[in-house]
Amino acid sequence: MAAVYKINDDFYDDSFLLIALHSVLEDYSIAYRLNSILKSNFKRTKKDFDLGAYKSFACYEWQDEYNDRYWLLMGNQSLKQELINNNNLFQNETTYSTPRLIPELKDVDYFLKIQMDDSVVSEDITKTILGMPKVMAAYEVDANKLKSKNNLIF
Known about the structure:
Layout: E1 16-23, H1 27-38, E2 43-44, E3 49-52, E4 55-57, E5 59-64, E6 69-75, E7 82-84, E8 95-97, E9 110-115, H2 122-130, E10 135-141
């Protein structure tokens, strides 16, 4: 029998800024444009962020040593699709479902998570991101109000 570990609230530091991005760009393209506009250095992680058998999300990271911040760009849509068995009128049709990192914000394409102290002004970052071509919306999300905020712990 495997041991079950739970993260204690005292252990987890949730001082991060979460920005939701709506864009038609692919993950590599949005990382490239963020690097250009924010003067950052996002690089693809060696492994995708896996939450389960059919839940794998693209992940880009950047360690900002000058400002002592850790940035993460994550796709909200899984790279893998789950096959759904139909027992209804369309049982002969193949149906797939695409899991989300944060299911309650299913319209969001990407999340930008910035682990930092309280000195960052989110309005400046979102205003800069909104200046990017093909980004329709960028806004701060209160992670404490999310039901699935545990998906952001890694």
